[in-house]
Amino acid sequence: MAGRGPVDAAGPLAEATAALRRHTPDGWTAVREDLLALARRAHRASAPVRGRHDLGDYLVATEVLVSSLRRAVAALPDVAVTAVHCATGEDDVLTGVTVEVAALFGTHLPSAGEEVHATLAATLRDLLGRLSPPAERVRVHVHVGDVVARRSDL
C-alpha cells in the first residue's frame, strides 16, 4: 500500500454508501408497518386494554392486567405462573389471554388447568366487566418447565 494517499471521501466508498441509501429492499415494505407499530408501542410503558361498566368505558394498563392475573393464580395451590400473554383487537378490546403455569410434581394437570382457567375468567370479569373476553378465548397452557417437590419452591 506504499505510495497510496488517503482515501478520497468522495470516491468509491461515498458512491457505494449513497447507492445503499437509495436502495429499498423488497422485504422492507412488508415489514415496515410491523416495525412502525412496534416503535409506537415502545413509547408506552404498557398498552391499554378497554373495560366497560355501567358508567362507560375505561382503560386498564396491560401491566396491571398481567399483575392481577398473576396474583389471582398465585393464590391457587400447586401451580405458579411462568408467562402471561394478552392479545387485543380493534379499540383495545382484549381478544384473548394465554397463561402458562408450572405445576408441582404429582399435580393432576387437567384439574389444575380447569382451576386456573376459572380463576382467570373471574379475574378478567372483575377487571374488564362486559368487555372481558368469552371464556373460550382464555387459554391456559399447563407447562411443566420444572419439577419441584415442595410448594414453597413454586
Task: Itemize the secondary structure elements and their pairings.
Elements: H1 12-22, H2 26-42, E1 48-53, E2 56-61, H3 62-74, E3 79-88, E4 94-103, H4 109-128, E5 138-142
Parallel strand pairs: 4-5
Antiparallel strand pairs: 1-2, 3-4
Helix pairs in contact: 3-4
Indicate the radius of gyration in whole angstroms. Answer: 25 Å
- Count of DSSP strands: 5
Percent of residues in helices comes to: 25-40%
Low-confidence stretches: none
CATH topology of the largest domain: Alpha-Beta Plaits
- Name of the level-1 CATH class of the largest domain: Alpha Beta
Within CATH, the superfamily of the largest domain carries the name Cation efflux protein, cytoplasmic domain
Q: Please describe the biggest sheet, giving its number of strands, its sense, and whether it closes into a barrel.
A: 3 strands, mixed
Mean pLDDT over the residues: 81
Sheet/helix structural class = alpha+beta
* Major sheet: arrangement of strands: 3-4-5
Note the total helix count.
4
Query: What's the order of the H and E elements?
Result: HHEEHEEHE
Span between termini: 65 Å
- Strand proportion, as a percent range, falls in 15-25%
Number of separate domains: 2
Q: Given the C-alpha coordinates, what overall shape results?
A: flat
